[in-house]
Specification:
Elements (H helix, E strand, L loop, with lengths): L1 H10 L8 H5 L3 H31 L4 H8 L3 H10 L6 H4 L2
Length: 95
């Protein structure tokens, strides 16, 4: 089910709000899968964007930096995205 939801959310052009009536009709476990998949995709997108921005500002990133960003929480990603605007080094950004 998670694979199907991932495909729909990444390939389809459906507004996520359009899924609400469907989600409301599902069993709790199915709802959890859909919500969790959506959160994972959103976090993955945020991490990918931050990696792109870090690379544009600081040059090629080490594998450890990429892994650090991919493993970060949503809160960390948001904080780092704010810090990239004023940071002069990658270390300052990811502090």
């Amino acid at each position: 089910m998670q694979a199907v939801v991932t495909d729909i959310m990444t390939v389809g052009e459906t507004d996520p709000a359009d899924f609400d009536p469907l989600i409301d009709r599902l069993e709790p476990r199915a709802k959890e899968v859909i919500v969790t998949t959506g959160e994972m995709l959103r976090a993955e997108g945020e991490a990918n964007l931050l990696i792109r921005l870090l690379g544009r500002k600081f040059g090629e990133l080490s594998e450890s930096t990429i892994q650090q960003v991919r493993a970060a929480s949503s809160g960390e990603l948001h904080r780092w995205a704010d810090q990239i605007l004023t940071a002069s080094t990658i270390e300052d950004t990811l502090a």
